[in-house]
Structures are given as C-alpha cells and as structure tokens.
Amino acid sequence: MSGAAPSGATQHPGSDHPWLPDLNWAPVAPFWAAAREQRLVFPRCGRCGRFQWYPQDMCPDCRVMAFEWAEVSPSGYVFSHTTLRRSFVPHFDNLLPLEIGLIKFVHAPGVTLVTNVLDTPAGGVHIDAEVTIVFPEVAPGVNLPMARLC
Question: I need a labelling partner for 138 at 20 to 30 A (CA). Which of 9, 62, 75, 146 fits?
C-alpha cells in the first residue's frame, strides 16, 4: 500500500494523522464545519426525519432529495469495536495500539460513526460503553470527531 492519500483525503505535514478529510468536499463540508465548532451534525431528511450517514442524495425511506444538517447530542454508545495492533499504513505506527469504535447515537437513529476511542488502553473498550464525541484539533483548522469513554 502506498503512502498516497486516498480520494477525498489530504495529507498534512506535521500532523499525527497522515490522512485528513477534504474539508471543502461539498457532500460533507457542513459536517467538518460543525466539527471545527465542536458540534456534531448529521444529515436528516426534511420530509420523514430519517437520519442518514454517510450522506446520500436521496432518502432511502421516502425517496425525497431534501436533506438538512441537524445538530445532535454528542453522547453515544459503542456498538462494536476493534483494536488495531499492526499498521499497514506508513506513519501510523506511533498511534498503535489504536482503539476503533463503531459509535451509535440515541438521538440520531440509524447513524453509525466509525472513529477512534481516545485515552483507552488496548482492550479497554466494551460493547454498549457510553461515550462522548469530542473534537480534538489534529492539524491547523482540522478537528476530527473522536470518542471518549464516559
């Protein structure tokens, strides 16, 4: 695997994260703008109210093409998790072991956010653990949503 950034990502020298999101990519720009303000938002259908993550053009429930970005509580729970112990990507070795969680939100049904779980020893995450999403700045002007155990 090469060290090139995947599509939709950019590399930032001096960051602990070699691949960071393209903050200006239209489908998710409102998400990243809210993250810079320490807020969690997800697209919600303007007709039926269904939350959708990752953004799509059309609501899978009512087939309307009218989403709005809605702020939700940063409180969630661990649906699933894994511990990354071996890096296949250059520059990630210093982050290992890395706890990765699939986080669900009571106030945003249907949304699952894949993110890091901060300040947790390897194996310290468990299913249904309560988390709060925080937004550390990982590069100038780039705040990534990450989970912290409550």
Answer: 75
